[in-house]
Automatic annotation (TrEMBL):
<keyword id="KW-0349">Heme</keyword>
<dbReference type="GO" id="GO:0005789">
    <property type="term" value="C:endoplasmic reticulum membrane"/>
</dbReference>
<dbReference type="InterPro" id="IPR036396">
    <property type="entry name" value="Cyt_P450_sf"/>
</dbReference>
<dbReference type="GO" id="GO:0009404">
    <property type="term" value="P:toxin metabolic process"/>
</dbReference>
<dbReference type="GO" id="GO:0050649">
    <property type="term" value="F:testosterone 6-beta-hydroxylase activity"/>
</dbReference>
<dbReference type="GO" id="GO:0005739">
    <property type="term" value="C:mitochondrion"/>
</dbReference>
<keyword id="KW-0492">Microsome</keyword>
<keyword id="KW-0408">Iron</keyword>
<comment type="function">
    <text>Cytochromes P450 are a group of heme-thiolate monooxygenases. They oxidize a variety of structurally unrelated compounds, including steroids, fatty acids, and xenobiotics.</text>
</comment>
<keyword id="KW-0256">Endoplasmic reticulum</keyword>
<dbReference type="GO" id="GO:0020037">
    <property type="term" value="F:heme binding"/>
</dbReference>
<dbReference type="GO" id="GO:0006706">
    <property type="term" value="P:steroid catabolic process"/>
</dbReference>
<keyword id="KW-0503">Monooxygenase</keyword>
<keyword id="KW-0472">Membrane</keyword>
<dbReference type="GO" id="GO:0008395">
    <property type="term" value="F:steroid hydroxylase activity"/>
</dbReference>
<dbReference type="GO" id="GO:0042178">
    <property type="term" value="P:xenobiotic catabolic process"/>
</dbReference>
<comment type="similarity">
    <text>Belongs to the cytochrome P450 family.</text>
</comment>
Amino acid sequence: MNLENISHTATSEVTLILCAFALLLLALHGRRRAPGVPVPPGPRPWPIVGNFLQMEEQVHLSLTNLRVQYGDVFQVKMGSLVVVVLSGYTTIKEALVRQGDAFAGRPDLYTFSAVANGTSMTFSEKYGEAWVLHKKICKNALRTFSQTEPKDSNASCLLEERICVEAIDMVETLKAQGEEFGDSGIDPVQLLVTSVANVVCTLCFGKRYSHNDKEFLTIVHINNEVLRLFAAGNLADFFPIFRYLPSPSLRKMVEFINRMNNFMERNIMEHLVNFDTNCIRDITDALIAMCEDRQEDKESAVLSNSQIVHSVIDIFGAGFDTIITGLQWSLLYLIKFPNIQDKIVQEIDNQVGMDRLPQFKDRPNMPYTEAFINEVFRHASYMPFTIPHCTTENITLNGYFIPKDTCVFINQYQVNHDIEIWDDPESFRPERFLTLSGHLNKSLTEKVMIFGMGIRRCLGDNIARLEMFVFLTTLLHRLHIENVPGQELDLSSTFGLTMKPRPYRIKIIPRN
Ligand code: HEM
């Protein structure tokens, strides 16, 4: 065989291999996609990094800009992971409500399994019969417990009692701090954190802590750190190689999660020791009772005891950072727009008066305050995305084919800033939610996206709205808050699963 023959044989082998590879790709491609249905468009990805380098620090803004070019359904590649991004109220509703089952999964992200250890309803379970039951159990435990008769007051339910106690305690502390610090003002975050965390601690574990309790502060700190590291979007989710390399932030996150789980386990063990079927003290007891009854109830046998009891971790983890961030933003808007604060105070004075404190029952009579809370959710959009979803089957949306097991981001920020819905989305204007007769325009408040939608919708949306209402109105019932002299108020935020405002101080003046 001469040289020419050798080179010819080698060329034809290469050609054959390439042809076979192309056929294999075609076959794989054909298997995943219905004929004639295109995949979503999107920016051209770079090798290895995909579209990662095209994302600004504020990822939601980059993805909102890409929607202008590619429409409501487009795809980007984050490292090796294909992510379909959904925008537009109608498209998101079509996906999460009308085709809800197909979009109800959670992706198999590395951080999700690190956080959840396989037992979490929120992060780790495959969507299916067991998950549906798990969500129902969490919902029932939350509802039963928040609606239980209060212990020591004439509040309408235990939830109202707990929230009112914490709100007034917070206001008294703020008042004392206001007297101490005068014109230089205070940073309200720490106090908001401990007050709101106490509400969820009482509901979950039947205990409240003093604001300086060491164990309590450690847990609150750990929860914040887990959320911060988690939200930073771990590189291991997008570049599998990082799973095998030492990563300080991943190691830190796993360490924090273990400490958090130890705290939860300790509380659950204490509850198991003192458990009494006739005296259900809190959500943990309610969940233990479900485990005890389940022998007779065949349906719940698809879930393990550990999964059921660990639901308390889902509720605890989701139930305070989101509310604290909402309150942080609210106070910032109140000092930035004093005329809006005056209107809320006017409503409090008219509807509640000075002889008693605000309660749940006042909420329907205070449309301006409700409009303010909705405008905070919309304008700050501090949960720019829902928790990532994943498709549970091959599906077509707006004419595009999305294969099973595709990671899906829901861009809530885009909906909240869509000029087609809001006309002037960048203005902060609670009045936009009021009808000419001053009532709340419910068909517009429904378009604010902050709790997700459909099967995966937040379980605590009602509790969150009630809690924010009572904390804000109790505060403004007793105190006037204003900007401290010389402080520039900046409405920009740090990016994350929940986006926080930049630190600021408030000056506190008692109202009477
Ligand atoms: C203003 C406060 C809150 C906001 C903005 C908020 C927002 C959200 C969002 C965006 C999701 C993800 C929805 C999705 O993936 O499509 C979620 C899920 C969830 N939230 Fe909330 N939330 C808040 C308060 C609460 C509270 C107070 C609780 C419980 C007491 C809670 C419990 C949950 C749970 C258990 C899930 C997981 C649902 C699932 O995976 O199916 N949330 N929340």
